[in-house]
Design a protein that fits this description.
- This protein is an alpha/beta fold.
- The protein has an eight-stranded mixed beta sheet, sandwiched between helices.
- Helix 2 crosses helix 3 and helix 6 packs across helix 8.
- The longest helix has 14 residues.
Length: 292
Amino acid sequence: MNRTIHKLEVDGVTIEYSTIGEGEPILLFHGGHSNCKEEFGFQSLIENGYSIITPSRAGYGETSKEIGDNLLKACTYYAKLLDHLEIEKAHIIAISAGGPTGIRFASLFPEKVLSLTLESAVCRKWLTRKDLEYKAAHIIFRPSTEWLTWKMLGMFSSLLPTFIFKVMAAQFSSLDKKGIKERMDQNDVKEFKRMNTRQRSGHGFLIDIKQTSDLTDQDLKKITCPTLILHSKNDGFIPLDHPQHAHETIPLSELHLLDSWGHLIWLGTAAKERDEKLLSFLRTNKRTIQVM
């Protein structure tokens, strides 16, 4: 992928972002532990004439953690990024823990949004203090030690890619081993290894957990653009009540549940279905150019 990475300095903070492809713009909010180098699901969009702008969200990569004080502040800066790029309207794609950012952005700046797609997305409060995952995240993904977590995971993924895939896939799926294997693609282990070697948490993941409490039903109700919700019916990471709640609350929304092996809907035998559904949705809601 011919990706270019840039930095925007504005109001004393830094927004790191990447651009790739040519055509109708997509502003993509990546998931947790990722950054502007995200790759999942990009290829089909680039091949079909879309350009993708991916900011490293607050606290990820080289984007200042200060813009993540709350969702309002973060989204205001992402809007400034579109202004800097002279993009009046863009499709929004929000992935996993980037869901709250995409939802709040679409509710705050309807004039800038052609459509919203939520992929395996967090759509309501998620990981509270009573959850074991919340407690674990504050230990293994805290900014002072997260680099070691990912270094170790990347090393083991390189040495034992199939074993690490099997161990981690169980966390992303509600299926048993047989069900996962039946829905796997031959390249999934390789792509999973690549994911583990490019990911970092920085300050970002703990910001993500905090920001889910900032999301309200009013944000969902205020979304006026067409919205596509894509989620795996076998997601073991983000429960199905998230996409279902979003579909019930966002006025112009459609929900499509994929029979993929789990949370990572861009992998496996159902990835092609994801591509087809998303591309059809984007084409239906494409930008119209007014002739004077």
